[in-house]
Amino acid sequence: MGTLASVLEASGIATVALSLIRQQVETTRPPRALHCEFPLGRPLGRPEDPAFQRSVLDAALALLDEPEGPVLVDFPEEITDDSDAPLVCTIPPADSGDLHPAEAEARGLLPAWKRSADAYGRSTVGKVVAAEEVPGLVGLFARIADGEGWQEVGLPGDPTKAAADVRNFYEEAALSLTEVVPGARQAETWFVDHTTAGDVIQRTRVAMKEQGAGFYFWYYLLPATQHHDPEDG
Amino acid sequence: MGDDRIRSELADLAGYAFDEVPWTSPRPLSESRVAIVTTAGLRVGGQPDWNPGDQSFTVLPGDRKDLVLSHYSPNFDRTGWVVDPNVVLPIDRLDEMAAEGVIGSVADAHISFMGAQIDHTLETIRLDTGPAAARALLDDGVDVVLLTPV
């Protein structure tokens, strides 16, 4: 992003970059940068907090008063992610019948996902499948996790994008199962560590790695910080 | 915490810096037209998902409410975006600042690239798509750009 800022600046546009990873801005040296030690994915700091977002913008645009650069200033307040404090959600009981428990779990979460989609008017599900197809997709991942070849179960697209649809579906469903807006990564850790589908994607990742899938395909199935390998204990 | 680990793993990542940092002296902020350029990998609804390595950009008309965060990396939080897009793309905040007269106006359109690029020299962005994005912004009369990452 620092490089892009310099390209725009060289074209005659004054730029101010928000920064989330300080070393990258130190390396790429954009003309003006406000480093915000905020959660990755939340450069303005806090969702649904207009006053806080405004304070970030005020601090950033104030850098336009600097007579020369490069300028790198730290925003005085820090916000950490909450990956070590997973959400506590009650998952609706599902009638599994003949379904894999993870597929049944995902079916049970569909109403919660719909409530979130209606409430917020947007979704990050749909890279490969629509939300209604996520339960079936979870069933396919369960077959890989349980030993079938990852190229043989009929995944409908790039496994990393399919896994993102599953994770995003769960995280968005969780928004309707809690009272407050979650901190960053709270829904992520809930999905990975406290849902059957999260366990399925984790085991799929390990299985694909063992089956010799390309690095990209197994590595990006889950956030790098959520990889739990059997040898880790 | 997750972000601490990602930050430390990315600390030594290679990056491209120009030999000389460019500098444009801005007009007074209260007279400036402001646009957002994000590297969040946003798309307008109906467009294809973003793929790794793509150094192109998407124009985001300011009145479109059907923006989709379609960045390929799983390594950052998305729930903030779902709840409140202003945490990534603060168009509502800029509109408020324009109404107050703090900034001159808000651009008609904003722009998204996608970060976490595999080619750290960003050759296509430097030589092709970056200057093209600048032209689009200048055609809209933009004076100031706020860049937001994820």
Strands of the widest sheet of chain A, in order across it, are 1-2-3
Radius of gyration over C-alpha positions of chain A, nearest whole angstrom: 21 Å
Tally of helical segments of chain B: 4
Shape of chain B: globular
Tell me how many strands of chain B there are. 7
Mean pLDDT of chain B: 95
- Count of structural domains of chain A: 2
Total DSSP helices of chain A: 9
User: Regarding quaternary structure, how should these chains be classified?
Assistant: heterodimer
Strand content of chain A: 5-15%
Low-confidence stretches of chain A: none
Which two protein chains have the largest interface (Cβ within 8 Å of the partner's Cβ), and how many residues from each? A-B, 89 and 81 residues
Number of domains of chain B: 1
Give the CA-based shape of chain A.
elongated
Low-confidence segments of chain B, given as residue ranges, are: none
Q: How much helical structure, as a percent, in the residues of chain B?
A: 25-40%
Number of strands of chain A: 3
- Pairing-aware structural class of the strands and helices of chain B? alpha/beta
Biggest sheet descriptor of chain B: 5 strands, mixed
Mean pLDDT over all positions of chain A = 96
Which terms would index this structure?
heterodimer; A: 233 residues; mainly alpha; 2 domains; three-stranded parallel β-sheet; 9 helices; 45% helix; B: 150 residues; alpha/beta; five-stranded mixed β-sheet; 4 helices; 18% strand
Question: Please, could you describe this protein's structure?
Answer:
The complex is a heterodimer of chains A (233) and B (150). Chain A is mostly helical. Chain A has two domains: 2-74, no CATH class; 101-232, no CATH class. Chain A contains nine helices and three strands. Chain A starts with a helix and ends in a 14-residue tail after the last helix. With 150 residues, chain B is of the alpha/beta class. Chain B has four helices and seven strands, in the order H-E-E-E-E-H-H-E-E-H-E. Strand 1 (14-19) of chain A pairs parallel with strand 7 of chain B.
